[in-house]
Amino acid sequence: MRFLKTPGTYLKSWAIGSCLAASLFVTACDVPKPDKSAPKPSGQKNNAIDSDHDSSDKPKDFASIAKSLSALQSRGAQGGEAVELLTDALEISPKQAAEWASTLPPGLNKDACLEIIFKGWSQKAPKDAAQFAKVHLKGVDYRLALASVVEGAASSSPETAAAFLASETEPLLRNALIDSLVSGAIADHSEFLAEWAAALPPGNDRTEAISSLVEEWSTRRPAECEKWFTRTLTPEEKSEQAVTLVTNWSSLNPREARAWLDAQTNPELKNNASIAFVESWAFVDPAAASQWAAGLRDPVLKKSAIESLAASWVVNDTAGAVEWASKLPDTSLQQTALQAAFERLAGESPAALEYWIQQHPGHPALLFAQAALSEQ
What we know:
This protein has a domain at 1-31 and 58-185. The longest helix has 18 residues, at 235-252. With 376 residues, it is mostly helical. 70% of the residues lie in helices and 2% in strands.
């Protein structure tokens, strides 16, 4: 997901916040599910994320929860325990939980708390959560809270989430809310998103919605995304989004991605997507990717694809990439591939390149390796 942008500042989005460990806690996406069948060591107390712990251990009011959270802050990271306390706080009073989070000092702790609280609140009372954010929060806090509301609401009611988006006019905030809507609804409401994005008029909202939807959808169900992509988007939009589609698709099913790419007739789309495809495929099956690249008929596209393949392949398998490049039947393509490979390796790890040079005295590709290293 992209970042929420503010003048001179980049604020991590709720999605990124939910996968980063704050110093107070990690969020629910990082909390392991307890194994109820596993026996516990004798004398060991259940921890706070064990759903089987005695209900009498849970705080009974918000004040005791706030006190426990403050204690966690003072003694360092206690991931699951903090998440459980915030979950309990939402059950008691989401408004009090939001008020408490709003008083925290700026930082990852506050961002993560706002994300959990407003996302959880929105799943039960999205209008109340949005209204609180509008009245009580400002600036970065407001943007993050509203983004969390939209994502949480979108998981059960994308129509409600879309209504919150419609009421906002600030372009950068609208971009963030579009990402939130797509992120929250993509798992269970892809049909809604497809119809909603397709109905948007040309402009910033449509561009952002299509970009976000292709990114999220192709990561999960690329073949399904491709049908909508082909049926709905304009030629210009297809050219812009083809790289995202084929990159994500190739990581899941390179054979399907290749078949789709081979069938494309738009030169710009095919060129951009082919380079992205071979780069991605190189990490999965470089040998197969090299066979495909060698079979391309367009000489310009073939040269670009081989260059990109070499630069990707060499990162994970230097010996294999150099051996392949050195055996290309076309001398010009050999030079292109070796230069691309060694320049990439020099940029990624000069030490690895130096080691290769030491281990391969007299190698035909040595001059290319030395030239790349000398340019660093």
